[in-house]
Design a protein that fits this description.
Number of helices: 19
CATH topology of the largest domain: Transferase(Phosphotransferase), domain 1
Strand order of the largest sheet: 1-2-3-5-4
Number of strands: 10
CATH architecture of the largest domain: Orthogonal Bundle
Number of domains: 2
Length: 537
């Protein structure tokens, strides 16, 4: 498993937000450092260009002296160089807010554009520009800044338009001074309309740059995994298809929305700590019938996430709803695999607390069909050492577990152990055999009351589907009101299931069933898309 970050050291971000997702702060810091380097180079260039200009004028015999006088153009260049060096020094400070530096960079761009514009039109002299549409250095500067300064489209448009307006503005000033008569004022705008078009190009460049930063931030928020398309949305969050950026390993990322965590900062901190504790416990489980947890963590907006293996198949609830009840041998085959997963968890002092058909996946693993994976071990509860502390499931403001599959002691809020999962597994078996819930109820409270007080009707009587007597008695024993009346452990239940005098569900039968399903759902012969672990409702 890839090691998660500490709750006290969440993923580095908190940077520029240009929409739904902020750019990571380290990327903004790198951008601000690049801006500083560009400012340094610009400052040097202003000095070199000014000196080289005077030397060139002397060489071309336009002046008898290299330094005739320090006129306004030289002062403008000196001011631009001073501003450039000042920004470089300011950006070098590592503790500066990169957002502020990048915003300052837009102001710097406008000031440099003003310097270029005034220098170009202050005193045209022998170099009167042709009054034709043209792209100026200011347009180039706007494009360069769009590529190196991540910013929102609105800021890019605003700063860009002000910058390219410096050319027409300097022409108006030159005309007012009487140094250049270019005709009607509209000429100044028509001459530089290509620069205004480049502002639109700059917006596109800026969007590309910022979106790349956002994608990097999104990928970083999920550890080493790149999010793909949405697979499923449930009551607690979403599941996305994902891929490891280095290993190209497919995975599913399950997000738990921050609003489900807590109502204030203190509760949120407690929930995050419990999330880490419980996820670390779940990550130690190695049963092949427990969904593998690759990674987990918390994003900057306090969204919890699990990175799990991507599964091929469907959950038991969907299986029964779409294809009807399972045969008794197949039910035994499925239940024994679930017991294998639960036994390891219970031995380690963990109780799942939300065993239900939607949290049990059936499909293909390797070359084996009808292979069970138990899901949602991220909401387990540690009970070793008498720990009765609420788990993440309770902390996020919902009843831990699902009422239709909840053991009586859980409904009462009493201490639970592995036998609560045995009860829930009995409810699952009842559903697989009959297609019905153990109890019918109009709401959750009535459902919990039935689990506390009502005796279950045998599944064969409730649904009219024949169920072998031995299996039915074993399922009803799992539904005993008192934990002592149930099988002592998942291992005991598995042994009892294995001793039933029933035909075995064979690998050949499983393969035949899945082959017929795949053929029906995909006429081209291509297997259906992999499914992600289910979300608790």
């Amino acid at each position: 498993m890839i090691g998660p970050k500490s709750p006290s050291a969440p993923f580095a971000s908190g940077g520029l937000s240009t929409g739904a997702r902020p750019i990571p702060k380290d990327l903004l810091r790198e951008a601000s450092q690049r801006l500083g380097i560009i400012a340094l180079l610009a400052g040097v260039l202003w000095i070199v260009a000014t000196v080289a200009g005077h030397i060139a004028m002397r060489a071309m015999r336009m002046s008898d002296q290299i330094w005739t006088w320090l006129g306004t153009p030289d002062l403008i260049a000196a001011a631009a160089a001073a501003i450039s060096f000042g920004l470089f020094v300011y950006a070098r400070k590592t503790k500066r807010d990169p957002n502020f530096i990048l915003n300052l960079g837009l102001v710097y761009m406008v000031s440099i554009a003003a310097a270029v514009g005034f220098l170009s039109h202050w005193n045209p002299g022998h170099f009167v520009p042709a009054v034709v549409p043209q792209i100026s250095w200011i347009g180039v500067i706007v494009l360069i800044f769009a590529a190196i300064v991540p910013t929102s489209p609105r800021k890019t448009v605003l700063a860009g338009l002000i910058a390219v307006s410096m050319n027409p503005l300097s022409m108006f000033i030159s005309q007012a001074r009487g140094t250049w008569d270019f005709g009607a004022p509209i000429v100044a705008l028509l001459m530089h309309y290509p620069d205004f078009l480049l502002v639109g190009v700059a917006v596109v460049i800026s969007r590309v740059v910022t979106r790349l930063g956002q994608q990097i931030g999104k990928a970083r928020e999920m550890g080493s995994y790149q999010l793909g398309e949405l697979i499923k949305r449930g009551g607690m969050g979403e599941v996305y298809r994902a891929k490891h950026r280095m290993l190209a390993r497919p995975a599913a990322i399950k997000l738990i929305r921050p609003e489900m965590l807590a109502t204030n900062g203190e509760e949120s901190t407690i929930a995050v700590k419990r999330f880490y504790r419980e996820a670390e416990a779940a990550a130690t489980l190695r049963s092949p019938h427990t969904v593998e947890l690759f990674d987990f963590g918390v994003t900057d907006d306090e969204t919890l996430y699990f990175v799990m293996e991507l599964l091929d198949g469907l959950d038991l609830e969907t299986l029964v709803r779409q294809h009807g009840v399972l045969s008794a041998p197949r039910v035994v085959h499925v239940l024994r695999q679930i017991c294998d997963s639960l036994e390891e968890a219970h031995v380690r002092g963990l109780v799942h607390r939300d065993i239900k058909p939607a949290n049990i996946h059936l499909g293909r693993v390797g070359l084996r069909d009808d292979f069970v994976k138990v899901l949602d071990f991220g909401l387990v509860k540690a009970v070793a050492g008498g720990n009765t502390e609420h788990s993440l499931g309770t902390e996020i403001g919902r009843i831990p577990g699902t009422p239709a599959y909840m053991a009586p002691e859980m409904a009462l809020g009493e201490a639970v152990d592995g036998r609560a999962d045995i009860y829930a597994l009995g409810c699952v078996a009842y559903f697989l055999l009959s297609g019905r819930l153990v109890f019918d109820a109009e709401n959750s409270f009535q459902m919990l009351a039935n689990h506390l007080k009502s005796d279950p009707v045998p599944p064969s009587l409730k649904s009219g589907v024949a169920v072998p007597d031995e299996l039915e008695r074993l399922v009803l024993s799992c539904l005993a009101k008192k934990p002592d009346g149930r099988p002592r452990s998942a291992a005991d239940l598995s042994r009892s299931l294995g001793s039933l005098r029933l035909p075995q569900w064979t690998e050949a039968q499983a393969s035949e069933w899945w082959a017929s399903r795949r053929a029906a759902e995909s006429p081209s012969g291509i297997s259906p898309n992999p499914q992600a672990p289910a979300l608790s409702q």
